Amino acid sequence: MTSETDDPAVAPDGGDDAPRTHPPRRSRSSRWKALFVALLVIGVLGTAAWVLLGSRLLVARHIDVVGERLVSRDRVIAVARVRLGEPLIKLNTGAVRDRVEAVQEVETARVERRWPATVRIVVRERTPVAAVQQDNRFLQIDRYGVTVLTSAARPRGLPELDVANPVQSDPSLRSGLAVIRALPAWLSRRVASVEARSPEAVTLRLKEGVAIVWGAPERTEDKLRLLRGLLRAASHRGTKTIDVSAPEVVTTE
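Above: the chain sequence. Below: its structure as tokens.
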């Protein structure tokens, strides 16, 4: 017989089959790692801020001007008022742009940071499209009516714009300029002068002596389509006036 004492010992409460608990060994290590990462990030950000704002590494040392022709480079730099030695990150590019665009010969400007030490100013100057006689001078004006240059003699290569009131806000001036801007090269190179007696009464005078009554600036494509054929015939028929102000009813004289 086998006695009860031969039975294997019964595991007491809390034996191998019972769940075991361990003290948290990693909590302190995780805290140190998080603190180290936080200090590392702060250090990197602090170094970057010092390099951008406080050091002499990334400051304006050179100013490049691109696109200038009518206005001098020295004038652009003087108007821009960029302080050499100023951190590039602090440069107010919008304010510099506005100051440069205030120059009469400049239509638009763009200001760029060129790391590590250059400010680049790209200017787009105004382009004269017509000449307006005022007293004994000729004002070379751009597409907006802004005077770009002034000369004593009539400039070659520009049509003369004849208006009663040659100021930028004049409706007749704006209509004349709108017509000039819309002309394709095959026609614009033949135009000697443009007369704008009112916003709806624009007339082109060609170098060969033909007057084109254009009317208002609207319906440019229709008028140009008609003129291509009419100008070919005009040289053979001795036509002096072509009226396309109302494209539905074209007249010639």
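The helical segments are 27-54, 73-80, 93-101, 171-182, 185-188, 220-237.
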